[in-house]
Amino acid sequence: MSTTVVDVDGALEAAGLTNEAVKEFVRYWAEHTGAERIEVVSAADDSRLIEEALAADEIQPAGEGLYYSRSYSKDTARSEERTIVATSNESDRGVYNNWRHADEIRPVVEGHMKGALAGKTMYVIPYLMAPPGSPLEKFAAGVELTDNRTVCLHMIRMARVGVDLINNLAEPDHFVRAVHVTGDLENLGQGTPDDKRNFVTVADQRTILHFGSSYGGNALLGKIAHGLRQASYDGWASGQFLSEQFMLLGIHDKQTGKTWHVCGGFPSASGKTNLAMTLAPDALGDRYHVSFYGDDIAWLWVGEDGALYGLNPENGVFGVAKDTNEKTNPTALESIAPGAQALFTNVAYNPDTHEVWWEGKTPERPSDTAGWVDWKGEKIADRNPDEAGDPWAHPNSRFTTSLDQVPNVAPDYSDPAGVKIDAIIFGGRTRDREPLIRAINDLAEGVYDGLTLGAEATSAADGKEGVLRYDPMSMRPFMSYPEGDYAAHWLKIVGAASEQPIFAHVNWFQRDSEDGHFLWPGYRENLRALLWLCRLKDGEVTGRETAVGVLPTEEELDLTGLDLPREDLDRILTIDVPRWREEMGYRQEHLEQFRELPEEIWVAHRRVADAVQRAEG
C-alpha cells in the first residue's frame, strides 16, 4: 500500500496503525525527508516484498527459498569511528562510547536526511525486540523508518514485525524512534575528512538516526542500535536490566532431567556463534541435548522470585558466513538450507547456477570459475594473476535467518518469561595465559574478569607479542554510558539475585609454542568445559583452586570418547604464572582509563594480582 506524502494518515490508517504517537513520528519524518510514498510493513508482507525486490534486482535467487544481496563495496561492516552515542549530559561520556552532545550532532545528521527521500518510498517497520508479554516489553517497542526494501526483509527476520505490536502499548508514546536513510553511497566520502556518514543513538531521547549505509548493524536499527546500545542505556537509566552482546544456550541432561542455561560474551573471532549453535559431542549425544536461544544479544534481569533471568531479544540470526561449514557449525548450515528464506550478503555468487560460496564453506573454491562474481560483483574469471588469491567473499559476509529455522532452537525461545541463568562466561582468543576454563565464584571478581576481557589482535599491538585488545564484556563497540557506571550497574543487577550465577573464563584457542597446533579440539567438544562448570555450580565437583580461579581436575572433566595427548591436557588445565604476572600490569593500565570504577572492582584486581604474585611457577 502506498500514497503521496500529503496522505500519510491515510496510508497509516489503511495499514491498521492506530497509535497516535507513532503517526505523529511518521508524519514528521515523511515531511522532513520528502518521502513520496508511505508503506507500513508487517511480517505477513515478506513474500510480496521478496517478489518486489527480485523484480527490482535488489536481491537475486540463491536456490529454493534463498536470496543473495550485495552492498556497496565501501559499505560492508559497522564503522566504529562513525558510530556515536549522544545525550544532553556530558557526564555520559565514556572511553568507548564516542560520545557527542545531542544538540551538536542531531542537526548534522538530520541535515543530511533533509529531502533525502524525494521520489522514494518510506517504509514504516513497527517491531518488538522481545517476545510480547516480556517483563521488558516496555523497552522493546520500536518503529524503524527506512528507504531500503532489503532492510525490511532483514528486519522481518531479526525482529517481531507488525502493527499489532505497536498499537496497544501500555504507554503509547514509549517506543524507540529509529530513522535510517541510505544516502548516496558512492558520494559520501567514506573514510575521508569529508565523510558524511553518521550512525547516532540519541540515548536519553530514545531516538536512533543512521545516515549513510544500507548494511547490517548500520541499517537494521532494531538489532545493534536498539537491542544493544539503546537497551543498555535504558537498562542503566531505569535500573532494571542489563543488555549485553551475549550468546545464550541451554544444556539438558536427559539422564537426570536437569537443564542449565549459560550466557556469555566473546570478542570478535572468539567463537561466540559457533558455541551458541553447538551440539553435544558424538560421544555425549545420548545423554546431553544443547538448545539454541541466541548468538548475539541477551537481556538480563532479576525476576520476582529473585532469580536472574535472560532472553534473546532478537528473532533471528545475523551470522558471519566466513568459515561456517559442516565441522565448525553444522547447525548454522541447516538453518540456511533450501527453503529457509535466508538472505546472504556479500558472499560470492553465481547468477547462472544461483549458488553462493564463501571462504571456509568448503575446503577448496569451486574449480570452475565460470559465472562466479565476487563480493564486489566482479567476475572472478576475469581476475588477473595478481588477484587470483584475493577472497571471493567479503570477510564480514553474512547470512540472515529466523530463529525458527535453527534446528535445535529451544522450544521456549519465545517464552516472554525468559530462562533462569546459571552461568555467565567470558572467552577471548589467546594462544597462552588462559586455561581451558577457570571458574569464579565471587560476583566482583566475575565482573572484574568481564571488564578485563580481551582477545589477541590479528597483529601484535604496539609491537608486543600476545598483547590483548581489551573488550569489556565484549561490549567495547556498543557501550552507551561510562564504564564506571557500567560496572556499578552490573554489580547492582546481578547482586540483587538471591541465587548468584557462577562466572567463568573460557579459552578454546591455546596453541603449542613450538609447532602452533591447538591444544584443545574446540567446536562441539567445548560443551565438556561447560558441563564441568554447571556441575561445579551444583556442588557435584570441587575443582582445583588457583590464583585466578577454580580449574577442573582431569578426573572431573568428562573426556569420554576424546583422546588428548597428555602434555596438551596438562597445559590446558594449568595456569601460566609468568604470563599472568605480565598480564596484571596490562590490566592495571586498562582499568586506570575508566572514571569512577567501583571500589569492589579495584579490590578484586588487587586480590587477583596479589594471588598471582604469590603463586608458584
Automatic annotation (TrEMBL):
It is found in: Cytoplasm. Keywords: Cytoplasm, Decarboxylase, Gluconeogenesis, GTP-binding, Kinase, Lyase, Manganese, Metal-binding, Nucleotide-binding, Pyruvate, Transferase. Pathway: Carbohydrate biosynthesis; gluconeogenesis. Residues 241-608 form the Phosphoenolpyruvate carboxykinase C-terminal P-loop domain. Residues 24-235 form the Phosphoenolpyruvate carboxykinase GTP-utilising N-terminal domain. The gene is pckG. It is an enzyme of class 4 (lyase). The keyword Iron-sulfur does not apply. Its cofactor is Mn(2+). HAMAP family: PEPCK_GTP (MF_00452). NCBIfam families: PRK04210.1. The active site is at S270. Catalyzes the conversion of oxaloacetate (OAA) to phosphoenolpyruvate (PEP), the rate-limiting step in the metabolic pathway that produces glucose from lactate and other precursors derived from the citric acid cycle. This is Phosphoenolpyruvate carboxykinase [GTP]. InterPro entries: PEP_carboxykinase_C (IPR013035), PEP_carboxykinase_GTP (IPR008209), PEP_carboxykinase_GTP_C (IPR035077), PEP_carboxykinase_GTP_N (IPR035078), PEP_carboxykinase_N (IPR008210). GTP binds at A269, S270, G271, K272, T273, N274, R398, R429, Y523, R524, E525, N526. The keyword GTP-binding applies. It comes from the Bacteria. Substrate binds at R78, Y215, G216, G217, S268, N396, S397, R398. Belongs to the phosphoenolpyruvate carboxykinase [GTP] family. SUPFAM superfamilies: PEP carboxykinase N-terminal domain, PEP carboxykinase-like. GO terms for cellular component: cytosol. Its EC number is 4.1.1.32. GO terms for molecular function: GTP binding; kinase activity; manganese ion binding; phosphoenolpyruvate carboxykinase (GTP) activity. One of its GO terms (biological process) is oxaloacetate metabolic process.
